[in-house]
Specification:
The protein is an alpha+beta fold and 483 residues long. It folds into three domains: 292 residues, no CATH class; 115 residues, no CATH class; 57 residues, Arc Repressor Mutant, subunit A (Orthogonal Bundle), CATH 1.10.10. The strands form four sheets. It has a nine-stranded mixed sheet. Strand 12, helix 3 and strand 13 form a beta-alpha-beta unit. The chain is elongated, with a radius of gyration of 30 Å. The termini are far apart. The model has no long low-confidence stretch (mean pLDDT 93).
Length: 483
């Protein structure tokens, strides 16, 4: 985007809730990438006349978790409404959503952008049902037609609407990644964008820098990945600034994103609320949330990712890079904290290094998530204890970790079975060092003549003779003395 302009970006994020059944019927929620089309459908979610919806209590509980985690004001009584529009993937001709009386409003999500924090305000959080899915195909004659799969129709959907508090792509990415992480922490959404469980719609406007009045807003629909969202917003910011620079005006409209051409395109003029003819859903009573349910839900909330990040930095002394990697996924942060509680002398930096480096390396080779790891946090803690006590060195610890991961054996047992305990006896190591130096007089002379790199060569010879079990600190000290 050209200088001299300020952008204002808000997001509407639609997150499918991980319930077993749909929002208003007993149809199972299936994996849309695996299930055969139209196999999880009943008269209710297919919009047959004479059917009555029933609210999914688990979906309400999940939505309440999100609303409270975002510090929203939860309405004691909210109302479902009919949002009327006609589209092939909407079997009833309307969507059951919430409009005038949403579940929750006025929340906030702090996100870290570089070294600073941005408080993104949440305008509203409300429940609705998902639509079906259209697939557009072309036959051998070039004719294009659409196939409708109603497996997705009726899946519980949570819409989270932000205020236009973001002004850069970096801030947008921080917010969307932060919200995805929160939804995963709350265990209400898998965060798997490849399966379409989170979808973005961006509201984008541009104004001259210094102007307090927001520019004309456009809405970009159906952005299904971080990459697509970033590309669409970036393109639209450039398009609008170029248009304003040339003296044109931005039209308020709904846009789509052409992935092949990497451009936005007009879908329709922007609808307003009256275009959808909202009215209270006559087949559903108002949704009443008891204060006792709010209090109990709030009590059971996990620590939010941004707060856990701040604590890891403040209490454990971790740098922001490692704290971010550890707290992005709840199972990783949980694993890290359990490791610390089982270490004889807790060392956060040491634990972070071994989890993010060596353990992640093993998990990636096996394509396994840390929550499914064969190596429990107590086992890693016992390995780090051996390392801290000087009974094994770093190289030996890596080999023991690999064996423990494959066999499930305890590090101490592996060390004893394979005779891997580190040799720290100064007198015994002094004899080995003396023998190596005596066997290589030419190299000793070269070292003393200024070829300092030979010291590391001597170190390697000593470690080789001791099978890698010599204490490297003791060896280096002896080399310094004898050379």
């Amino acid at each position: 985007m050209k200088s001299g302009y300020t952008s204002d970006i808000g997001l509407e994020i639609h997150a499918e809730l991980q319930t077993q059944s749909k929002m208003f019927c007993a149809c199972p929620v299936v994996d849309l990438t695996q299930a055969q089309p139209n196999t999880a459908v009943c008269p209710i979610c297919s919009g047959m006349p004479g059917t009555l919806p029933v609210v999914n209590a688990q979906a309400v509980a999940f939505a309440l978790r999100v609303a409270l985690a975002l510090e929203c004001e939860v309405a004691e009584t909210s109302q479902f409404a009919r949002k009327n529009y006609f589209y092939p993937d909407l079997p009833k001709g309307y969507q059951i959503s919430q409009y005038e009386r949403p579940l929750a409003e006025h929340g906030i999500l702090p996100v870290r952008v570089d070294k600073n924090w941005l408080n993104v305000r949440i305008r509203r959080v409300h429940l609705e049902e998902d639509t079906g899915k259209l697939t557009h195909v072309q036959d051998e004659n070039g004719a294009v037609y659409s196939l409708v799969d109603l497996n997705r129709a009726g899946i519980p959907l949570l819409e989270i609407v932000s205020e236009p508090d973001m002004q850069t792509i970096k801030q947008v990415n921080a917010y969307t990644h932060g919200l995805r992480s929160l939804l995963r922490y709350l265990e209400v959404n898998s965060g798997d964008l490849e399966k379409g469980v989170i979808r973005f719609e961006a509201n984008v406007s541009v104004r001259p820098s210094g102007s307090e009045e927001l520019g004309t807003r456009v809405e970009i629909k159906n952005l299904n990945s971080f990459k697509t969202m970033t590309a669409a917003i970036s393109y639209e910011l450039d398009r609008q600034t170029d248009l304003l620079e040339s003296g044109g005006k931005v039209a308020q409209e709904t846009l789509g994103w052409d992935e092949a051409r990497q451009v936005t395109f007009s879908q329709r003029s922007k609808e307003e609320a009256h275009d959808y003819r909202y009215f209270p859903e006559p087949d559903l009573p108002p949704l009443v949330i008891a204060q006792s349910q709010i209090d109990e839900t709030r009590r059971q909330l996990p620590e939010r990712p941004d707060r856990r990040f701040r604590r890891f930095v403040a209490d454990f002394g971790l740098d922001s890079y490692h704290a971010d990697l550890l707290t992005n996924e709840k199972p990783v942060a949980d694993y890290f904290e359990v490791v610390l509680t089982h270490m004889e002398q807790p060392d956060p930096s040491l634990a972070a290094y071994w989890i993010l480096g060596e353990l992640f390396g093993l998990l990636n080779l096996k394509n396994v998530q840390i929550g499914d790891s064969a190596l429990g946090p107590e086992t890693l803690a016992s390995l780090l204890d051996l390392l801290q006590e000087g009974r094994i060195n770093k190289a030996t610890a890596k080999s023991i970790l690999a064996v423990a991961y494959e066999t499930g054996k305890q590090p101490g047992d592996i060390m004893r079975e394979k005779g891997l305990e580190q040799v720290s006896d100064r007198q015994a190591l002094a004899e080995v060092v003396k023998n190596v130096l005596t066997a290589h007089p030419g190299e000793v002379q070269a070292y003393r003549a200024g070829k300092a790199a030979l010291r590391q060569w001597f170190f390697g010879q000593i470690m080789r003779q001791t099978g890698g079990q010599a204490n490297p600190v003791v060896v280096q000290k002896l080399l310094e003395e004898m050379l």
